[in-house]
Amino acid sequence: MAASPKNNAALSQLGNLYQYLVVLKLCLESAPGSIINLEQLGDITTSSGYQYEVKHHDNQTHILNDTHIDFWKTLKNWVDNFELLQSFSNLVLLTSSIVKENSLLGQWHSLSISERHCRLKLQADLVLANRNAFKTITPLVRSIYSFDSEYTEDKLKNILSRLVIKHSSDRAIEMYNGLIAHNALMAVPIKSRANMVRSLLGMIAVKGITGTSTWDIERDEIQHHVISQTAMINKGGRIYYPDLENAECNEDILRHRCIEEIRSIPYEKQILSAAQDYYYYTLTVSITAEDDPYILNDFLRIEKGIGADLNLEKTECCLTLASTPINDGALITATKKFFIKAVKSIPSSDPDGSAEAKKFNRGMIHSYVNTSDFRWRITQVDLDDQ
């Protein structure tokens, strides 16, 4: 059997997703009123005076050595943005990589400012003297040590005095699992904590898309979301993920039975919204029930209940029609009315009636249709059977 290909695109995106995990952790552990910003002055900045550059490597044995591009590229970014970063007391390189104790980076926090500067200069001289061996970082090192009247050696020393190396940080999966078990979520029912984390991560991502100028995440906003969602769960509701209004589903969704049934009404105007609702529902269920078969069984049980109600509604509609003169046009009109009524009247398990909850529940109807022999189209045969 051929070896599974490495999904390089997925791995590259993991670095971006890792930022969301770090931001969420910082928010959960920040003081009231704190604000976390993404991508304005670097990867992450906080209102408490920290600026983070985040580097993730999925390989748990990955080593950040003294000539690694992660370090020198980060330092170059801080040099280039010196004026903008003057107000930050800590410039943090946060990385999942490990460092060796006897390396410069491994001893960094035990060194004085002058020792950091001297030893880093020795490392820079080594790189510049062996440019063929260090082709990737040579331009970075050369730029960092190209002083002039505007950028002085004292400015570099100032950066080095604030530079913090937080190595051996949890990798993405470890941080994700740690967030699920975080003390800040202790009031959330155990079975709902993974959903809570996913909902918060979705909230962070959507704010980056909808933000007009800044990508700010407020600690109090996160806290309010946790409290309100926990209250909803305790009332019997469910957590839903923030939704994108114009989310696109793939062509495969449009070939599912539930969509073909809408085409058979025929009701072309309803196909796109139905496909998006169904896609949202199936995506949410696949994530939510990924590691919990009990949750999946719960969804299937609810689907069957909805299906029973749907069949009763169709029967009621047929009984009403059976007493009146019928033609094909009347049957199509009646079917469209039945479809709209069924999609609109499904009860929401969310006490607040959020748009996400309604979208989820509409998708549940289509999921039932997709796996059953239910037909939307009302025919003369249906009327005769009454």
Q: Would you give an account of this structure?
A:
By secondary structure, the chain is of the alpha/beta class. It has 14 helices and 6 strands. The protein has 2 domains: 11-183, no CATH class; 253-384, no CATH class. Helix 2 (69-80) packs parallel to helix 4 (138-144) and helix 10 crosses helix 13. The longest helix has 30 residues, at 293-322. It is elongated, with a radius of gyration of 28 Å. 27% of the residues are buried. The model is unreliable at 1-10 and 348-352 (pLDDT under 50).
Topology:
Blueprint: H1 8-28, E1 35-38, E2 44-46, E3 50-55, H2 69-80, E4 90-95, H3 113-129, H4 138-144, H5 153-162, E5 163-166, H6 172-180, H7 193-210, E6 216-218, H8 219-234, H9 257-263, H10 271-288, H11 293-322, H12 328-345, H13 355-371, H14 380-384
Parallel strand pairs: 3-4, 4-5
Antiparallel strand pairs: 1-2, 1-6, 2-3
Helix pairs in contact: 1-6, 1-7, 1-8, 2-4, 3-5, 6-7, 9-13, 10-13, 11-13
| Number of distinct beta strands | 6
Residue runs with pLDDT of under 50 for 5 or more positions: 1-10, 348-352
Mean pLDDT: 82
Number of domains: 2
Strand percentage lies at 5-15%
Keywords:
single chain, 386 residues, alpha/beta, 2 domains, six-stranded mixed sheet, 7% strand
How would you summarize this macromolecular structure in one to three sentences?
This protein is α/β, with parallel strands linked by helices and 386 residues long. It has 2 domains: 11-183, no CATH class; 253-384, no CATH class. It contains 14 helices and 6 strands.
